[in-house]
From TrEMBL:
UniProt keyword Lyase, yes or no: yes
Record-given protein name: Carboxynorspermidine/carboxyspermidine decarboxylase
Origin: domain of life: Bacteria
CDD domains hit by this protein: PLPDE_III_CANSDC (cd06829)
GO-annotated molecular function: diaminopimelate decarboxylase activity
Provenance organism: Candidatus Kentrum sp. SD
Co-factor requirement: pyridoxal 5'-phosphate
Record has Lyase as a keyword: yes
Every Orn/DAP/Arg decarboxylase 2 C-terminal domain range: 398-551
InterPro entries: Ala_racemase/Decarboxylase_C, De-COase2_C, Nsp_de-COase, PLP-binding_barrel
Catalytic activity: carboxynorspermidine + H(+) = norspermidine + CO2; carboxyspermidine + H(+) = spermidine + CO2
The protein's enzyme class: lyase
Length: 596
Protein backbone atom coordinates (compact mmCIF):
# COMPACT_ATOMS: atom_id res chain seq x y z
CA UNK A 1 0.00 0.00 0.00
CA UNK A 2 1.27 3.44 -0.87
CA UNK A 3 2.29 5.79 1.87
CA UNK A 4 -0.24 8.55 2.55
CA UNK A 5 0.50 11.76 0.70
CA UNK A 6 1.52 14.78 2.74
CA UNK A 7 1.58 18.26 1.25
CA UNK A 8 4.80 20.26 1.35
CA UNK A 9 5.40 22.87 3.99
CA UNK A 10 6.37 25.60 1.55
CA UNK A 11 6.44 26.35 -2.15
CA UNK A 12 9.01 28.73 -3.62
CA UNK A 13 8.52 30.08 -7.14
CA UNK A 14 11.66 31.58 -8.67
CA UNK A 15 12.24 33.27 -12.01
CA UNK A 16 14.82 35.32 -13.82
CA UNK A 17 13.97 39.06 -14.09
CA UNK A 18 14.14 38.95 -17.88
CA UNK A 19 11.34 36.39 -17.86
CA UNK A 20 8.99 38.35 -15.59
CA UNK A 21 6.30 39.06 -18.19
CA UNK A 22 6.21 35.53 -19.54
CA UNK A 23 6.00 33.89 -16.12
CA UNK A 24 3.12 36.07 -14.98
CA UNK A 25 0.56 33.49 -16.17
CA UNK A 26 2.40 30.84 -14.16
CA UNK A 27 2.47 33.06 -11.08
CA UNK A 28 -1.27 33.57 -11.46
CA UNK A 29 -1.84 29.83 -11.85
CA UNK A 30 0.16 28.94 -8.76
CA UNK A 31 -1.42 31.74 -6.74
CA UNK A 32 -4.91 30.75 -7.77
CA UNK A 33 -4.39 27.16 -6.67
CA UNK A 34 -2.55 27.84 -3.43
CA UNK A 35 -3.65 31.24 -2.26
CA UNK A 36 -6.57 32.25 -4.46
CA UNK A 37 -5.26 35.75 -4.05
CA UNK A 38 -1.93 36.91 -5.43
CA UNK A 39 -1.55 39.34 -2.56
CA UNK A 40 -2.10 36.72 0.16
CA UNK A 41 0.88 34.41 0.63
CA UNK A 42 -1.00 31.66 2.45
CA UNK A 43 -3.43 29.07 1.16
CA UNK A 44 -6.83 29.17 2.75
CA UNK A 45 -7.15 25.44 2.22
CA UNK A 46 -3.72 24.08 3.04
CA UNK A 47 -1.96 26.93 4.79
CA UNK A 48 1.07 26.40 2.54
CA UNK A 49 3.41 29.39 2.52
CA UNK A 50 3.95 30.53 -1.06
CA UNK A 51 7.01 32.64 -1.80
CA UNK A 52 7.86 34.49 -5.02
CA UNK A 53 11.40 35.49 -5.93
CA UNK A 54 13.09 37.18 -8.84
CA UNK A 55 16.65 35.93 -9.09
CA UNK A 56 19.29 37.38 -11.39
CA UNK A 57 21.88 34.94 -10.11
CA UNK A 58 22.97 32.54 -12.87
CA UNK A 59 23.61 29.75 -10.39
CA UNK A 60 21.13 29.71 -7.54
CA UNK A 61 17.82 31.03 -6.33
CA UNK A 62 18.20 34.12 -4.19
CA UNK A 63 17.83 32.54 -0.79
CA UNK A 64 18.43 29.20 0.76
CA UNK A 65 16.23 26.74 2.59
CA UNK A 66 16.00 26.77 6.37
CA UNK A 67 19.15 25.53 8.03
CA UNK A 68 19.21 21.88 8.98
CA UNK A 69 17.04 20.52 6.19
CA UNK A 70 18.32 17.29 4.70
CA UNK A 71 18.49 16.73 0.97
CA UNK A 72 15.43 14.54 1.07
CA UNK A 73 13.38 17.41 2.48
CA UNK A 74 13.65 19.57 -0.63
CA UNK A 75 12.26 19.10 -4.10
CA UNK A 76 13.71 21.36 -6.76
CA UNK A 77 11.71 21.65 -9.97
CA UNK A 78 12.80 23.41 -13.14
CA UNK A 79 10.31 24.02 -15.93
CA UNK A 80 13.05 23.95 -18.50
CA UNK A 81 12.30 24.52 -22.15
CA UNK A 82 14.49 22.13 -24.01
CA UNK A 83 12.99 20.80 -27.22
CA UNK A 84 11.99 23.80 -29.30
CA UNK A 85 14.72 25.29 -31.42
CA UNK A 86 18.05 24.71 -29.75
CA UNK A 87 19.40 27.59 -31.80
CA UNK A 88 17.13 29.77 -29.68
CA UNK A 89 18.08 28.45 -26.28
CA UNK A 90 21.71 27.44 -26.68
CA UNK A 91 22.59 31.12 -26.90
CA UNK A 92 20.83 31.77 -23.63
CA UNK A 93 21.24 29.11 -21.00
CA UNK A 94 21.98 30.38 -17.50
CA UNK A 95 23.48 27.72 -15.31
CA UNK A 96 20.41 27.93 -13.13
CA UNK A 97 18.15 26.44 -15.80
CA UNK A 98 18.23 22.83 -16.98
CA UNK A 99 18.95 22.71 -20.67
CA UNK A 100 18.28 19.29 -22.13
CA UNK A 101 16.89 15.82 -21.63
CA UNK A 102 13.42 14.38 -21.21
CA UNK A 103 11.54 14.76 -17.95
CA UNK A 104 12.69 12.24 -15.42
CA UNK A 105 13.97 12.04 -11.90
CA UNK A 106 17.70 12.49 -12.17
CA UNK A 107 18.43 12.19 -8.49
CA UNK A 108 16.67 11.26 -5.33
CA UNK A 109 15.58 8.16 -3.51
CA UNK A 110 15.04 6.05 -6.65
CA UNK A 111 18.56 6.57 -7.97
CA UNK A 112 20.42 7.16 -4.77
CA UNK A 113 22.08 10.11 -6.47
CA UNK A 114 22.06 13.73 -5.45
CA UNK A 115 22.99 16.97 -7.12
CA UNK A 116 25.97 18.58 -5.49
CA UNK A 117 27.64 21.41 -7.27
CA UNK A 118 25.89 20.68 -10.55
CA UNK A 119 27.79 17.55 -11.56
CA UNK A 120 26.77 15.92 -14.81
CA UNK A 121 24.64 12.84 -14.18
CA UNK A 122 23.84 9.80 -16.29
CA UNK A 123 20.65 7.99 -17.05
CA UNK A 124 20.43 4.26 -16.75
CA UNK A 125 21.39 3.88 -20.42
CA UNK A 126 24.53 5.88 -19.95
CA UNK A 127 23.37 8.95 -21.83
CA UNK A 128 24.17 12.31 -20.34
CA UNK A 129 21.59 14.32 -18.48
CA UNK A 130 21.64 18.10 -18.41
CA UNK A 131 23.67 19.86 -15.79
CA UNK A 132 21.40 20.94 -12.97
CA UNK A 133 21.79 23.97 -10.74
CA UNK A 134 23.00 23.57 -7.17
CA UNK A 135 20.59 24.76 -4.54
CA UNK A 136 21.45 27.65 -2.25
CA UNK A 137 24.25 27.06 0.23
CA UNK A 138 25.41 24.18 -2.02
CA UNK A 139 22.66 22.09 -0.46
CA UNK A 140 21.87 18.90 -2.33
CA UNK A 141 18.28 18.08 -3.13
CA UNK A 142 15.92 15.83 -4.91
CA UNK A 143 15.65 17.30 -8.38
CA UNK A 144 13.17 16.68 -11.14
CA UNK A 145 13.55 18.21 -14.56
CA UNK A 146 10.40 19.81 -15.83
CA UNK A 147 8.53 18.97 -19.02
CA UNK A 148 10.47 19.10 -22.25
CA UNK A 149 7.97 21.55 -23.64
CA UNK A 150 7.80 25.28 -24.04
CA UNK A 151 6.81 27.34 -21.05
CA UNK A 152 3.34 27.82 -22.39
CA UNK A 153 2.41 24.37 -21.18
CA UNK A 154 3.94 25.25 -17.84
CA UNK A 155 0.66 26.87 -16.83
CA UNK A 156 -1.44 23.73 -17.21
CA UNK A 157 1.33 21.50 -15.93
CA UNK A 158 1.94 23.59 -12.85
CA UNK A 159 -1.79 23.58 -12.20
CA UNK A 160 -1.55 19.79 -12.21
CA UNK A 161 1.42 19.95 -9.88
CA UNK A 162 -0.30 22.32 -7.48
CA UNK A 163 -3.48 20.27 -7.58
CA UNK A 164 -1.43 17.48 -6.02
CA UNK A 165 -0.74 19.75 -3.06
CA UNK A 166 -4.47 20.21 -2.59
CA UNK A 167 -5.37 16.52 -2.76
CA UNK A 168 -4.59 14.93 0.58
CA UNK A 169 -4.93 11.42 -0.86
CA UNK A 170 -2.88 8.31 -1.36
CA UNK A 171 -0.40 8.50 -4.19
CA UNK A 172 -2.44 6.14 -6.35
CA UNK A 173 -5.32 8.65 -6.36
CA UNK A 174 -3.34 11.72 -7.31
CA UNK A 175 -4.66 13.79 -10.19
CA UNK A 176 -4.93 11.66 -13.32
CA UNK A 177 -3.98 14.60 -15.50
CA UNK A 178 -0.59 14.75 -13.85
CA UNK A 179 -0.22 10.99 -14.04
CA UNK A 180 -0.60 11.13 -17.81
CA UNK A 181 1.75 14.04 -18.45
CA UNK A 182 5.50 14.54 -18.14
CA UNK A 183 4.70 15.63 -14.61
CA UNK A 184 4.22 11.99 -13.75
CA UNK A 185 7.84 12.16 -12.69
CA UNK A 186 6.98 14.98 -10.35
CA UNK A 187 4.15 12.89 -8.97
CA UNK A 188 6.57 10.12 -8.08
CA UNK A 189 8.80 12.53 -6.21
CA UNK A 190 5.93 14.27 -4.48
CA UNK A 191 4.55 11.02 -3.09
CA UNK A 192 7.80 10.82 -1.16
CA UNK A 193 8.71 7.18 -1.54
CA UNK A 194 11.20 6.65 1.22
CA UNK A 195 10.65 10.19 2.50
CA UNK A 196 8.81 11.33 5.56
CA UNK A 197 7.75 14.57 3.93
CA UNK A 198 8.84 17.04 1.29
CA UNK A 199 9.52 20.09 3.37
CA UNK A 200 10.05 22.69 0.66
CA UNK A 201 9.32 22.75 -3.07
CA UNK A 202 11.40 25.07 -5.25
CA UNK A 203 9.97 25.71 -8.70
CA UNK A 204 12.49 27.51 -10.89
CA UNK A 205 10.39 28.80 -13.77
CA UNK A 206 12.09 29.55 -17.03
CA UNK A 207 9.84 31.92 -18.90
CA UNK A 208 9.59 32.05 -22.64
CA UNK A 209 11.13 35.46 -23.20
CA UNK A 210 11.92 35.84 -26.86
CA UNK A 211 15.69 35.55 -27.34
CA UNK A 212 15.62 37.84 -30.30
CA UNK A 213 19.27 37.73 -31.29
CA UNK A 214 19.09 33.95 -31.51
CA UNK A 215 16.13 33.82 -33.89
CA UNK A 216 16.80 34.04 -37.58
CA UNK A 217 14.25 36.70 -38.49
CA UNK A 218 15.12 39.59 -40.75
CA UNK A 219 14.24 43.01 -39.41
CA UNK A 220 12.11 44.98 -39.30
CA UNK A 221 9.35 42.87 -37.81
CA UNK A 222 6.53 43.18 -35.33
CA UNK A 223 6.53 40.49 -32.65
CA UNK A 224 3.12 39.76 -31.13
CA UNK A 225 3.80 37.90 -27.88
CA UNK A 226 0.94 36.00 -26.26
CA UNK A 227 2.95 35.48 -23.08
CA UNK A 228 2.99 39.25 -22.59
CA UNK A 229 -0.61 39.73 -23.70
CA UNK A 230 -2.26 37.26 -21.38
CA UNK A 231 -1.60 39.33 -18.25
CA UNK A 232 -3.85 42.07 -19.58
CA UNK A 233 -6.44 39.68 -20.97
CA UNK A 234 -6.77 38.13 -17.52
CA UNK A 235 -7.49 41.57 -16.07
CA UNK A 236 -10.20 42.09 -18.68
CA UNK A 237 -11.68 38.72 -17.79
CA UNK A 238 -11.54 39.63 -14.10
CA UNK A 239 -13.59 42.76 -14.78
CA UNK A 240 -16.10 40.75 -16.80
CA UNK A 241 -16.63 38.29 -13.98
CA UNK A 242 -16.69 40.80 -11.12
CA UNK A 243 -18.72 43.59 -12.72
CA UNK A 244 -20.99 41.85 -15.21
CA UNK A 245 -19.81 44.26 -17.93
CA UNK A 246 -18.95 42.58 -21.22
CA UNK A 247 -15.81 43.44 -23.18
CA UNK A 248 -15.57 43.60 -26.96
CA UNK A 249 -12.23 44.12 -28.71
CA UNK A 250 -11.91 47.40 -30.62
CA UNK A 251 -10.62 46.20 -33.99
CA UNK A 252 -9.73 49.76 -35.03
CA UNK A 253 -6.83 49.46 -32.57
CA UNK A 254 -5.70 45.89 -33.16
CA UNK A 255 -6.96 43.42 -35.74
CA UNK A 256 -4.24 40.77 -36.06
CA UNK A 257 -6.39 37.70 -36.04
CA UNK A 258 -3.48 35.32 -35.44
CA UNK A 259 -4.09 35.82 -31.69
CA UNK A 260 -7.88 35.80 -31.76
CA UNK A 261 -7.95 32.17 -30.65
CA UNK A 262 -6.33 33.25 -27.39
CA UNK A 263 -8.23 36.52 -26.98
CA UNK A 264 -11.71 35.10 -27.48
CA UNK A 265 -11.31 33.13 -24.26
CA UNK A 266 -11.11 36.38 -22.30
CA UNK A 267 -13.47 38.68 -24.22
CA UNK A 268 -17.05 38.60 -25.49
CA UNK A 269 -16.59 39.66 -29.10
CA UNK A 270 -15.54 42.62 -31.21
CA UNK A 271 -16.60 46.12 -32.14
CA UNK A 272 -15.81 47.70 -35.48
CA UNK A 273 -15.51 51.06 -37.18
CA UNK A 274 -16.16 49.85 -40.70
CA UNK A 275 -17.70 47.01 -42.68
CA UNK A 276 -14.50 45.03 -43.20
CA UNK A 277 -13.67 45.13 -39.50
CA UNK A 278 -17.18 43.91 -38.72
CA UNK A 279 -16.79 41.01 -41.13
CA UNK A 280 -13.37 40.16 -39.70
CA UNK A 281 -14.75 40.11 -36.17
CA UNK A 282 -17.69 37.94 -37.20
CA UNK A 283 -15.64 35.44 -39.20
CA UNK A 284 -12.42 35.25 -37.20
CA UNK A 285 -13.23 36.18 -33.61
CA UNK A 286 -16.84 35.16 -33.07
CA UNK A 287 -18.97 36.01 -30.08
CA UNK A 288 -20.87 39.28 -30.26
CA UNK A 289 -20.17 41.57 -33.20
CA UNK A 290 -20.96 45.27 -32.86
CA UNK A 291 -20.98 47.40 -35.99
CA UNK A 292 -20.33 51.13 -35.81
CA UNK A 293 -19.28 53.66 -38.43
CA UNK A 294 -19.16 57.46 -38.49
CA UNK A 295 -21.23 57.30 -41.69
CA UNK A 296 -22.65 54.34 -43.62
CA UNK A 297 -23.62 54.06 -47.24
CA UNK A 298 -26.82 52.22 -48.06
CA UNK A 299 -24.86 49.30 -49.46
CA UNK A 300 -22.71 49.08 -46.34
CA UNK A 301 -25.77 48.90 -44.10
CA UNK A 302 -27.13 46.03 -46.20
CA UNK A 303 -23.82 44.19 -45.84
CA UNK A 304 -22.96 44.89 -42.21
CA UNK A 305 -26.26 43.60 -40.87
CA UNK A 306 -25.19 40.17 -42.12
CA UNK A 307 -22.37 40.12 -39.58
CA UNK A 308 -23.56 42.14 -36.59
CA UNK A 309 -25.61 41.52 -33.48
CA UNK A 310 -25.82 45.26 -32.84
CA UNK A 311 -25.54 48.20 -35.22
CA UNK A 312 -24.70 51.65 -33.86
CA UNK A 313 -25.38 54.83 -35.80
CA UNK A 314 -23.35 57.99 -35.31
CA UNK A 315 -26.12 60.55 -35.86
CA UNK A 316 -29.86 60.96 -35.69
CA UNK A 317 -29.90 61.46 -39.46
CA UNK A 318 -28.23 58.10 -40.17
CA UNK A 319 -30.37 56.37 -37.57
CA UNK A 320 -33.61 57.53 -39.15
CA UNK A 321 -32.40 56.96 -42.72
CA UNK A 322 -31.35 53.33 -42.25
CA UNK A 323 -33.17 52.01 -39.19
CA UNK A 324 -35.82 50.25 -41.23
CA UNK A 325 -33.13 48.31 -43.15
CA UNK A 326 -31.61 46.47 -40.20
CA UNK A 327 -34.32 43.89 -39.60
CA UNK A 328 -34.28 42.42 -36.12
CA UNK A 329 -30.78 43.57 -35.18
CA UNK A 330 -30.45 45.59 -32.00
CA UNK A 331 -30.07 49.30 -32.82
CA UNK A 332 -27.98 51.83 -30.95
CA UNK A 333 -27.00 55.48 -31.23
CA UNK A 334 -23.68 57.06 -30.37
CA UNK A 335 -24.21 59.98 -28.00
CA UNK A 336 -21.73 62.74 -27.19
CA UNK A 337 -22.03 63.18 -23.40
CA UNK A 338 -20.08 66.43 -23.39
CA UNK A 339 -17.55 65.16 -20.83
CA UNK A 340 -14.44 63.12 -21.53
CA UNK A 341 -10.68 62.95 -21.32
CA UNK A 342 -7.80 62.80 -23.77
CA UNK A 343 -4.12 63.69 -23.63
CA UNK A 344 -4.22 65.04 -27.19
CA UNK A 345 -6.91 67.13 -28.94
CA UNK A 346 -6.64 65.06 -32.12
CA UNK A 347 -8.08 62.02 -30.37
CA UNK A 348 -10.49 63.77 -27.99
CA UNK A 349 -13.95 62.31 -28.80
CA UNK A 350 -15.83 65.17 -27.11
CA UNK A 351 -13.70 68.10 -28.20
CA UNK A 352 -15.38 71.27 -29.43
CA UNK A 353 -17.13 70.80 -32.78
CA UNK A 354 -16.79 67.02 -32.49
CA UNK A 355 -18.63 65.09 -35.19
CA UNK A 356 -18.59 61.90 -33.13
CA UNK A 357 -22.00 61.13 -31.69
CA UNK A 358 -25.24 63.05 -31.35
CA UNK A 359 -24.89 66.00 -28.94
CA UNK A 360 -27.19 65.70 -25.97
CA UNK A 361 -28.84 69.02 -26.86
CA UNK A 362 -30.12 67.54 -30.14
CA UNK A 363 -31.75 64.43 -28.68
CA UNK A 364 -35.57 64.34 -28.78
CA UNK A 365 -37.27 63.49 -25.52
CA UNK A 366 -38.63 60.23 -26.96
CA UNK A 367 -35.31 58.96 -28.38
CA UNK A 368 -35.52 55.98 -26.03
CA UNK A 369 -38.38 54.62 -28.12
CA UNK A 370 -36.19 54.56 -31.26
CA UNK A 371 -33.15 52.70 -29.93
CA UNK A 372 -32.26 49.67 -27.83
CA UNK A 373 -28.94 50.97 -26.60
CA UNK A 374 -26.42 53.80 -26.64
CA UNK A 375 -22.68 54.13 -27.03
CA UNK A 376 -20.86 56.77 -24.99
CA UNK A 377 -17.25 56.77 -26.19
CA UNK A 378 -15.65 59.76 -24.50
CA UNK A 379 -12.14 58.79 -23.33
CA UNK A 380 -8.71 58.22 -24.79
CA UNK A 381 -5.94 56.64 -22.70
CA UNK A 382 -7.63 57.70 -19.46
CA UNK A 383 -5.70 56.33 -16.46
CA UNK A 384 -7.46 58.17 -13.61
CA UNK A 385 -10.14 56.06 -11.93
CA UNK A 386 -11.49 58.97 -9.87
CA UNK A 387 -11.90 60.99 -13.04
CA UNK A 388 -13.74 58.11 -14.68
CA UNK A 389 -16.05 57.83 -11.67
CA UNK A 390 -16.89 61.53 -11.91
CA UNK A 391 -17.64 61.14 -15.61
CA UNK A 392 -20.02 58.29 -14.91
CA UNK A 393 -21.81 60.35 -12.27
CA UNK A 394 -22.23 63.20 -14.75
CA UNK A 395 -23.75 60.77 -17.25
CA UNK A 396 -26.19 59.52 -14.64
CA UNK A 397 -27.24 63.08 -13.85
CA UNK A 398 -27.62 64.09 -17.50
CA UNK A 399 -29.01 60.89 -19.05
CA UNK A 400 -30.72 59.12 -16.16
CA UNK A 401 -34.18 59.11 -17.73
CA UNK A 402 -32.84 57.75 -21.03
CA UNK A 403 -30.68 55.10 -19.35
CA UNK A 404 -33.74 53.63 -17.65
CA UNK A 405 -35.29 53.06 -21.11
CA UNK A 406 -32.32 51.22 -22.65
CA UNK A 407 -31.35 47.54 -22.76
CA UNK A 408 -27.61 48.06 -23.14
CA UNK A 409 -25.00 50.80 -22.83
CA UNK A 410 -21.46 50.83 -24.20
CA UNK A 411 -18.97 53.01 -22.35
CA UNK A 412 -16.57 52.77 -25.27
CA UNK A 413 -12.83 52.37 -24.97
CA UNK A 414 -9.96 54.59 -23.96
CA UNK A 415 -9.98 53.58 -20.28
CA UNK A 416 -6.60 52.17 -19.19
CA UNK A 417 -8.09 49.80 -16.63
CA UNK A 418 -5.57 47.02 -17.32
CA UNK A 419 -2.65 49.25 -16.38
CA UNK A 420 -0.55 48.15 -13.40
CA UNK A 421 -1.89 49.72 -10.22
CA UNK A 422 -5.36 50.55 -11.55
CA UNK A 423 -7.95 49.92 -8.78
CA UNK A 424 -9.74 47.06 -10.51
CA UNK A 425 -12.01 46.15 -7.62
CA UNK A 426 -13.26 49.73 -7.30
CA UNK A 427 -13.72 49.84 -11.07
CA UNK A 428 -15.74 46.61 -11.01
CA UNK A 429 -17.88 47.83 -8.12
CA UNK A 430 -18.66 51.08 -9.94
CA UNK A 431 -19.65 49.28 -13.15
CA UNK A 432 -21.73 46.69 -11.34
CA UNK A 433 -23.68 49.32 -9.42
CA UNK A 434 -24.27 51.35 -12.59
CA UNK A 435 -25.55 48.34 -14.53
CA UNK A 436 -27.83 47.20 -11.73
CA UNK A 437 -29.19 50.69 -11.05
CA UNK A 438 -30.36 51.15 -14.64
CA UNK A 439 -30.95 47.46 -15.49
CA UNK A 440 -28.72 47.65 -18.55
CA UNK A 441 -26.06 45.36 -19.95
CA UNK A 442 -22.82 47.32 -19.88
CA UNK A 443 -20.12 46.99 -22.52
CA UNK A 444 -16.49 48.08 -22.54
CA UNK A 445 -14.52 48.37 -25.77
CA UNK A 446 -10.86 47.81 -24.85
CA UNK A 447 -8.34 48.18 -27.65
CA UNK A 448 -5.01 49.39 -26.32
CA UNK A 449 -5.98 48.00 -22.90
CA UNK A 450 -6.12 44.50 -24.38
CA UNK A 451 -2.74 44.56 -26.16
CA UNK A 452 -0.63 46.76 -23.88
CA UNK A 453 3.06 45.74 -24.00
CA UNK A 454 2.19 42.68 -26.08
CA UNK A 455 3.97 43.70 -29.28
CA UNK A 456 7.45 44.92 -30.16
CA UNK A 457 8.79 46.49 -33.34
CA UNK A 458 12.25 45.01 -33.82
CA UNK A 459 14.69 47.02 -35.94
CA UNK A 460 18.37 47.03 -36.89
CA UNK A 461 20.78 49.98 -36.87
CA UNK A 462 21.86 50.56 -40.48
CA UNK A 463 23.96 53.69 -40.09
CA UNK A 464 25.21 56.20 -37.55
CA UNK A 465 25.40 59.85 -38.60
CA UNK A 466 26.50 62.96 -36.70
CA UNK A 467 25.32 66.53 -37.05
CA UNK A 468 25.73 68.07 -33.59
CA UNK A 469 23.81 65.05 -32.33
CA UNK A 470 24.59 61.38 -32.90
CA UNK A 471 21.78 59.71 -34.81
CA UNK A 472 21.04 56.04 -35.33
CA UNK A 473 19.34 55.23 -38.63
CA UNK A 474 17.22 52.09 -38.32
CA UNK A 475 15.49 49.99 -40.98
CA UNK A 476 11.99 51.27 -40.19
CA UNK A 477 10.21 54.61 -40.14
CA UNK A 478 7.76 56.46 -37.95
CA UNK A 479 5.35 57.40 -40.72
CA UNK A 480 5.00 53.96 -42.31
CA UNK A 481 5.43 51.75 -39.24
CA UNK A 482 4.63 53.68 -36.03
CA UNK A 483 2.48 56.51 -37.31
CA UNK A 484 1.20 57.59 -33.89
CA UNK A 485 4.72 58.68 -32.97
CA UNK A 486 4.30 61.47 -35.54
CA UNK A 487 0.61 62.08 -34.98
CA UNK A 488 0.83 62.57 -31.23
CA UNK A 489 4.49 63.53 -30.85
CA UNK A 490 5.59 60.93 -28.32
CA UNK A 491 8.67 58.71 -28.06
CA UNK A 492 7.96 54.97 -27.91
CA UNK A 493 9.60 53.01 -25.12
CA UNK A 494 12.77 51.22 -26.14
CA UNK A 495 13.89 48.03 -24.45
CA UNK A 496 17.57 48.92 -24.67
CA UNK A 497 17.39 52.61 -23.81
CA UNK A 498 15.87 55.26 -21.56
CA UNK A 499 13.73 58.00 -23.08
CA UNK A 500 15.15 61.50 -22.58
CA UNK A 501 12.68 64.37 -22.51
CA UNK A 502 15.03 67.05 -23.86
CA UNK A 503 16.34 67.15 -27.41
CA UNK A 504 18.52 70.25 -27.72
CA UNK A 505 21.91 69.64 -29.32
CA UNK A 506 23.82 70.99 -26.31
CA UNK A 507 22.55 68.18 -24.10
CA UNK A 508 24.38 65.58 -26.14
CA UNK A 509 27.87 67.08 -26.32
CA UNK A 510 30.53 65.24 -24.38
CA UNK A 511 30.17 61.95 -22.56
CA UNK A 512 28.70 63.05 -19.22
CA UNK A 513 25.24 61.93 -20.25
CA UNK A 514 26.31 58.41 -21.16
CA UNK A 515 25.62 57.01 -24.61
CA UNK A 516 22.88 59.28 -25.97
CA UNK A 517 21.46 58.85 -29.45
CA UNK A 518 18.55 60.09 -31.51
CA UNK A 519 16.89 57.04 -33.05
CA UNK A 520 15.70 57.93 -36.55
CA UNK A 521 13.81 56.26 -39.35
CA UNK A 522 15.06 55.93 -42.90
CA UNK A 523 12.29 57.67 -44.83
CA UNK A 524 12.75 60.97 -46.63
CA UNK A 525 10.65 62.76 -44.00
CA UNK A 526 12.96 65.26 -42.29
CA UNK A 527 11.27 64.72 -38.94
CA UNK A 528 11.37 60.94 -39.07
CA UNK A 529 12.59 60.52 -35.47
CA UNK A 530 11.43 57.97 -32.91
CA UNK A 531 12.98 59.82 -29.99
CA UNK A 532 16.08 60.58 -27.93
CA UNK A 533 17.43 57.77 -25.76
CA UNK A 534 20.24 57.12 -23.31
CA UNK A 535 21.89 53.71 -23.57
CA UNK A 536 24.20 51.97 -21.11
CA UNK A 537 26.56 50.96 -23.89
CA UNK A 538 27.86 52.18 -27.21
CA UNK A 539 25.54 51.28 -30.07
CA UNK A 540 27.07 49.83 -33.23
CA UNK A 541 25.86 49.34 -36.78
CA UNK A 542 24.10 45.98 -36.90
CA UNK A 543 22.71 46.18 -33.36
CA UNK A 544 19.05 45.35 -32.90
CA UNK A 545 16.65 47.60 -31.01
CA UNK A 546 13.19 46.75 -29.73
CA UNK A 547 10.39 49.32 -29.52
CA UNK A 548 7.97 48.07 -26.89
CA UNK A 549 4.22 48.51 -26.72
CA UNK A 550 3.88 48.72 -30.49
CA UNK A 551 0.66 46.73 -30.81
CA UNK A 552 -2.09 49.33 -30.62
CA UNK A 553 -2.76 51.58 -33.62
CA UNK A 554 0.45 50.53 -35.38
CA UNK A 555 -0.12 47.56 -37.68
CA UNK A 556 -3.62 48.81 -38.50
CA UNK A 557 -2.02 52.01 -39.88
CA UNK A 558 1.16 50.76 -41.57
CA UNK A 559 1.75 51.84 -45.16
CA UNK A 560 4.21 51.67 -48.06
CA UNK A 561 5.56 55.23 -47.79
CA UNK A 562 8.83 55.56 -49.78
CA UNK A 563 8.50 51.97 -50.95
CA UNK A 564 10.36 50.83 -47.84
CA UNK A 565 9.96 47.18 -46.99
CA UNK A 566 7.01 46.51 -44.72
CA UNK A 567 7.87 44.81 -41.41
CA UNK A 568 7.04 41.14 -41.18
CA UNK A 569 4.61 40.03 -38.49
CA UNK A 570 5.81 37.33 -36.10
CA UNK A 571 3.53 35.57 -33.66
CA UNK A 572 4.87 34.08 -30.44
CA UNK A 573 2.42 31.62 -28.92
CA UNK A 574 2.03 30.66 -25.29
CA UNK A 575 4.05 27.52 -25.93
CA UNK A 576 7.02 29.70 -26.86
CA UNK A 577 6.99 28.82 -30.55
CA UNK A 578 7.44 31.67 -33.02
CA UNK A 579 6.04 31.73 -36.53
CA UNK A 580 5.96 34.28 -39.30
CA UNK A 581 2.36 35.29 -39.94
CA UNK A 582 3.14 37.53 -42.89
CA UNK A 583 6.33 38.55 -44.67
CA UNK A 584 5.45 41.31 -47.17
CA UNK A 585 7.20 41.29 -50.54
CA UNK A 586 7.45 43.47 -53.63
CA UNK A 587 4.36 41.72 -54.99
CA UNK A 588 2.37 43.05 -52.01
CA UNK A 589 3.70 46.53 -52.73
CA UNK A 590 2.78 46.16 -56.40
CA UNK A 591 -0.79 45.11 -55.60
CA UNK A 592 -1.12 48.08 -53.26
CA UNK A 593 0.07 50.52 -55.93
CA UNK A 594 -1.51 49.10 -59.07
CA UNK A 595 -4.38 51.60 -59.08
CA UNK A 596 -2.59 54.64 -57.67
Amino acid sequence: MSAPYKPPLAVHLVWHPSDKDSVDPIIQAVSKHLSRDVERPFSRNLNIPLFFYSSDSPDTPPCGPPQGLAARDILFVSTSVNTRGREVWNDYSPKGILRAGPPEIISGPETGRSINGGNRLSRGNGEGVAKAPPLPNTCSASCVEGPSQSSANNVSHIKSLISMFRKNKDSEKIDARARNTPFGAWREALTNKGHSRTRSVWIYVQGSSFRRNSVNLDTPFYLIDETRMIKYLERIDYVRRKSGAKSVLALKCFSNWCVFELMRGYMDGTTSSGVYEARLGHERFGGETHGYCVAYTKGEVKEIVRYCDKIIFNSLGQLRTYKDMVGGISVGLRINPGVGWSCHPTCDPVRRYSRLGAPSSTLPTDIGAEIDGAMFHYNCDHEDFDGFARQLQTMENDFGDLLHQLKWVSLGGGVAFTKDGYPLDDFCHLLKEFGERFHVQLYLEPGEAAVTHSTSLVVTVLDIVRNERTMLIVDAGTEPHLLDVLTYGYAPTLEEGEILAGSSAEEFRGSDNGHVYVVCGRTCLAGDEFGVYRFDRKIKIGDRLHFNNAGGYSMVKKNWFNGIGMPSIAHKKLDGSVRIVHAPTYEDYLREKQNT
